[in-house]
Amino acid sequence: MYTIGYDLGSSSIKVALVETITGKSLGVVNEPKTEMTMHSPQRGWAEQNPEDWWTHICKATKQILDQTKVQPGEIKGVGISYQMHGLVIVNEQGTPLRNSIIWCDGRAVDIGKKAFDELGQDKCAHELLNSPANFTASKLKWVKENEKEIYGKIYKAMLPGDFIAFKLSGKINTTISGLSEGIFWDFKENKIANWLLDYYGLEENHIPELVDTFSDQGQITSKGALETGLAEGTPILYRAGDQPNNALSLNVFNPGEVAATGGTSGVVYAITDNLSVKESSRVNNFAHVNYSLKSRRIGKLLCINGAGIMYRWLLNNLNVSNYEEMNELAARVPVGADGVIILPFGNGPERMLENNDLGAEIKNINLNRHNNAHLCRAALEGIAFSFVYGMEILKTDGIKAKVIRAGNDNLFRSPIFSDTIATLIEHDIEIYNTTGAIGAARACQLHDGNYANFGKQIMDNDYIMSYKPSSEKKDYRLAYELWKNELEIKLKIN
Questions:
Q1: Dist CA 265 CA 324 (whole Å)
Q2: Do 148 and 258 reside in the same domain of the chain?
Q3: From its phi and psi, is residue 133 left (phi > 0), alpha (psi between -120 and 50) or beta?
Q4: Which residue among 244, 271, 291 closes a domain?
Q5: Structure pTM?
């Protein structure tokens, strides 16, 4: 028997088939083969057509069934992971009324800032665990203010994953974890934040019915079966946003467990059971996939925009062929890059730096001594140091890391990058080769509470290695303190 997992990103859809007994992946299919279309009607806006997501999901599902020769009736569950913070609004027939306003769209920033000030920062922090900011609730308010005719036709407002579940099952519902990422959830009262809806002038009946993250959330209809190739009646058993799902894919569920990713941007996602909001202006807090009224599991999400994009910029501007060559060059240079320091924050405002837009900066270049190798080393260290800086922020917010697990993505493939972090935070970093689609497929088994088997499957199939702290950490610590000093000087000036 098998389960199928979908990972709805903003660039592509990934679909994975997993064997239920072993957790082994039979394969992963990407659609489309080039990046999905993103519309930008105005500067700072980002939209996608939800029906395009569905088209790619149907195509990818048929492809993976054809490639694996798995019969639709052998698939016993569907799991869904999706791009967070997006807004999909539909009429009573479930037809989208406009393009989805997706996660990276900035049109509602000012709406969220105004709400944060007028509702009170303490109230928002202690009850929403976040500022309303540019999240889904604020985007819905933007529609109400700017597209009144469209707003008047709304039947339900959904997150991207809710829409895909609807297309499969014909049912419109959502989860507590989903509502928290949209900033619709009151953690103090453990219910929908009606006071925020009232402030924005939004209707509670636009919010979908709640279902548990791990539960039978609806079965595939005859129409859904016809369009995807799956069997009618197959249950949807799991749904979560991409960052909580990434943590789940790395077996991160309990306080002290931390998931990290190092792609274009970097993310540290730490689990806690306390509702501390000391760093709510720099860290987002969401209900994790296993959050319940009896067992509060909060995912503290710290994002570093200036991460892998810095290393990619160097790749594009140095006379090198690939990342492997860059890593080899960096390894020729000692810890500290012979004094060269790179602040990698060149990808827009950094929330962890109080939304300062510092820009990237290269410091202390000596034209007689330094070369490409020093730049590669300084870039890897600078990005690693930004992760360590973020971990220090999380520590002040009550996070005590016990284990850190990371995907085998671009940055964590570099021993210099991973060794630097492991040494400075004094914890092993476990590396796993997995994807969000595989994690979503495996998560179907958790509706029965089978966490032990779930974790075993991850270890058996995905574990690659661990990076351990160096016994000679003096040089790492000195290099980090010099880097941190330069950052704090820059923050004071900015």
A1: 19
A2: no
A3: left
A4: 244
A5: 0.93
Q: Are residues 146 and 202 in the same domain?
A: yes
Structure tokens at 180: 């928290």
Element of type H or E holding 301 = strand 298-304
Centroid of chain to Cα 310: 19
* Whole-angstrom distance, CA of residue 74 vs CA of residue 234: 10
* 247-to-244, 261, 383 alpha-carbon distances in Å: 5, 9, 21
Contact 358, 395 (CB under 8 A): no
136 lies in the same domain as 264: no
Q: Which residues of 260-270 are buried (b: 16+ CB within 10 A; e: fewer)?
A: bbbebbbbbbb
CATH of the domain at 421: 3.30.420.40
In contact, 324 and 339? CB cutoff 8 Å = no
- Rounded to an integer, the average pLDDT of 15-33 is 96
Q: Are residues 418 and 494 in the same domain?
A: yes
Q: Are residues 176 and 317 in the same domain?
A: no
Kindly provide the residue ranges of all beta strands, DSSP E only, lying in 354-428, ordered along the sequence: 361-363, 403-407
Decide if 130 is inside a domain: yes
Q: Give the contacts of 38 (CB within 8 A, at least 6 positions apart).
A: 10, 46, 47, 48, 102
The candidate with the shortest Cα–Cα distance to 416, out of 381, 370, 391, is 381
List pLDDT tens digits, range 339-385. Answer: 999 999 998 889 899 888 999 999 999 999 999 999 999 999 999 99
End-to-end, the C-alpha distance of the chain in Å comes to 57
Task: State which of 244, 276, 307 marks the end of a domain.
Answer: 244
Residue 26 lies in a domain: yes
What whole-number distance in Å separates Cα of residue 250 and Cα of residue 258?
A: 9
- Structural domain tally of the chain? 2
pLDDT in tens, 186-234: 999 999 999 999 999 999 999 999 999 999 999 999 999 999 999 999 9
Angle value at C-alpha 65, between 60 and 69, nearest 5 degrees: 155
- Domain of 22 in residue numbering reads as 2-244
DSSP 87: B
Residue 484 makes CB contacts below 8 A (sequence gap 6+) with 385, 389
Question: Are 321 and 265 within one domain?
Answer: yes
Place of tokens 């492809």: 63
